[in-house]
């Protein structure tokens, strides 16, 4: 089973993504950065979907915190904004 950690503050997007994923994927949800970091440290995660804008910290801060704490799985930065410049800058 492939484990996805989805860190985004929009509950509706979590529900939509969960309903679209095939059975061989397990999605773990975090609605803020602090919770996302905790879940990443407590679970084996295969890929992280990370929102750039979170209510408690930026996605960049989460990425930086995770990269210094664990062997970082692939991270896909996501945003509800049309401008992808911030996501590209995080690489």
Features of this protein?
four-stranded parallel beta sheet, globular, alpha/beta, 91 residues, 4 helices
Task: Give the topology.
Blueprint: E1 2-7, H1 11-20, E2 25-30, H2 33-42, E3 47-51, H3 59-69, E4 75-78, H4 85-89
Parallel strand pairs: 1-2, 1-3, 3-4
What does this structure look like?
- The structure is a single chain.
- By secondary structure, this protein is an alpha/beta fold.
- The chain is built from four helices and four strands.
- Helix 2 (33-42) packs parallel to helix 3.
- It is globular and about 30 Å long.
Concise overview:
This protein has 91 residues and is an alpha/beta fold. The protein contains four helices and four strands; from the N terminus they run E-H-E-H-E-H-E-H. The protein has helices at residues 11-20, 33-42, 59-69, 85-89, and strands at 2-7, 25-30, 47-51, 75-78.
Major beta sheet, specifics? 4 strands, parallel
Structural class: alpha/beta
The amount of helix comes to 25-40%
Find the count of extended strands (DSSP E, 2+ residues): 4
Largest sheet strand order: 2-1-3-4
């Amino acid at each position: 089973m492939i484990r996805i950690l989805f860190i985004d503050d929009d509950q509706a997007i979590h529900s939509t993504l969960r309903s679209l994923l095939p059975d061989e994927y397990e999605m773990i949800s975090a609605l803020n950065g602090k919770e996302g970091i905790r879940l990443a440290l407590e679970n084996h995660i295969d890929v992280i979907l990370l929102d750039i804008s979170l209510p408690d910290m930026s996605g960049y801060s989460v990425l930086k915190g995770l990269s210094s704490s664990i062997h970082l799985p692939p991270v896909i930065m996501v945003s509800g904004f049309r401008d992808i410049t911030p996501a590209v800058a995080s690489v």
